[in-house]
Amino acid sequence: NYMRVLVILVIVAAGLLGHPATAASQSLTVAGCVIHFSTVGDIVDPKDTATVVGVQWRRSDGLPVEVRCPDVQIYAQEIDYWSRDERLELRGQVVFQQGGTRIAAEL
Predict the structure, then answer these.
(1) pLDDT band at 4, cuts 50/70/90?
(2) How many helices (H) and strands (E) does the chain have?
(3) Which residue of 19, 42, 62, 80 has the fewest C-beta atoms within 10 A of its own C-beta?
(4) In sequence order, which residues have a C-beta less than 8 Å from that of residue 46 and are 6 or more positions away?
(5) Among 102, 76, 74, 84, which Cα is nearest to 8's?
(6) CA distance 100 to 18
(7) Which has more confidence, 97 or 24?
(8) What's the Cα-to-Cα distance from 7 to each of 42, 48, 72, rounded to whole Å?
């Protein structure tokens, strides 16, 4: 199930690359999962600022970015997706919840 969430987030990130940041709270539904965020921005290669290497999801209202799937929920203050490495970074107060299992950490 963790891999399914990772694949869903990869698909969402690929669809959001190149989109400008926006201040309004918004959500995006992909494969039955809803992602709640208020800003989305590009991560650029520091050596070549014309090359987008990832996407950032943030919330400006103090609430965490939420990824809600039917069987898994992830909450984090910041979520970055690095497309080149196919890697997610979750920062701040992070919670992963599946069924009766809940893992919380400060990253």
Answers:
(1) low
(2) 1, 10
(3) 62
(4) none
(5) 74
(6) 37
(7) 97
(8) 19, 27, 13
Which H or E element spans position 89? Answer: strand 87-91
Q: Is 104 exposed, middle or buried (0-12, 13-18, 19+ CB in 10 A)?
A: exposed
Measured CA to CA in angstroms, residue 73 lies from 4, 20, 39, 100, 103 at distances of: 12, 26, 19, 12, 11
Residue 10 main-chain phi, psi, to 5 deg: -65, -45
Q: Which of 36, 82, 80 is nearest to 59 (CA)?
A: 36
Percent of the chain with pLDDT over 70: 74
How far is CA 27 from each of CA 4, 14, 53, 60, 62, rounded to the nearest angstrom?
19, 16, 22, 14, 16
Cα gap 55→48, rounded to integer Å: 16
Q: What does the pLDDT average to over 35-56? A: 83
Q: How many residues does the chain have?
A: 107
Q: What number of CA atoms fall less than 13 Å from residue 101's CA on the CB side?
A: 8
